[in-house]
Amino acid sequence: MDQPTVRSVLPARTRDDLAALGPSVAALAGGSGIFAEPHPHLTGLVDLHALGWESLVVTDEGLEIAATCTIAEVAGIPPRDSWAAHPLFLQACTALFGSTKIWRVATVGGNICSALPAGPMTALASALDAEALIWRAATVDEPAHDERMPVAELVTGDRTTALLPGDVLRSIHVPAASLRSRTAFRKIALSPIGRSGSVVIGRLDEGGAFTLTVTGATLRPELLRYPTLPAAGVLAGTWERSDPGSPTRTAPPTGAVP
């Protein structure tokens, strides 16, 4: 979709170029979100691709995923012997409201910052306890600086985040311990690849701790943590559903997650 109010597109080659961002100037990564609907308040875009961020960086500490990494690149992450959670990368991508053509354009950062309840990269990152690296913009009170926070806390509601005008999501970091964890993925959707009504991801850490992450049927990621693997009845009894379309409290529409 054309954005007739946009008059300029600035390729950002250094962090200083991001100073152009503001209420009427947005960061541009893949563009699948910006060009999907009208944004009459926008007069300019700042293209992040010129910064040349490496999409995927593997270290002993885990996996660094750049905000400009495409969903197709996430789906194609090669397996590693120690990464028991590897299947989750492709599984999460299938929860996207969009075809595989969109995968080649849409980015991890754009999907998370859009803060849609059914954001698959939000689900993936939250389930793996990924940490977001945010480039905070300078304000009258403090200079530009870096800040880290869990992705599950970065998304605060339906299309709302902890980002302020001028802030940029630089990358997300997936800890090595999460990559070694066993995971289970379940979703409810009208098609194998498409917008999910509910996405449920279970993660069993090496030490026995269990985390259940629910997205899609919630306004923001909901994480339930247990010191050991809980029985199904325990999960059903502690869940409070926060459905964007209904305030009704009920058990999650998930079935069993082995």
From TrEMBL:
<dbReference type="Pfam" id="PF00941">
    <property type="entry name" value="FAD_binding_5"/>
</dbReference>
<dbReference type="InterPro" id="IPR051312">
    <property type="entry name" value="Diverse_Substr_Oxidored"/>
</dbReference>
<protein>
    <submittedName>
        <fullName>FAD binding domain in molybdopterin dehydrogenase</fullName>
    </submittedName>
</protein>
<dbReference type="GO" id="GO:0016491">
    <property type="term" value="F:oxidoreductase activity"/>
</dbReference>
<dbReference type="InterPro" id="IPR036318">
    <property type="entry name" value="FAD-bd_PCMH-like_sf"/>
</dbReference>
<feature type="domain" description="FAD-binding PCMH-type">
    <location>
        <begin position="1"/>
        <end position="179"/>
    </location>
</feature>
<dbReference type="GO" id="GO:0071949">
    <property type="term" value="F:FAD binding"/>
</dbReference>
<feature type="region of interest" description="Disordered">
    <location>
        <begin position="237"/>
        <end position="258"/>
    </location>
</feature>
<dbReference type="InterPro" id="IPR002346">
    <property type="entry name" value="Mopterin_DH_FAD-bd"/>
</dbReference>
<dbReference type="InterPro" id="IPR016166">
    <property type="entry name" value="FAD-bd_PCMH"/>
</dbReference>
<dbReference type="InterPro" id="IPR016169">
    <property type="entry name" value="FAD-bd_PCMH_sub2"/>
</dbReference>
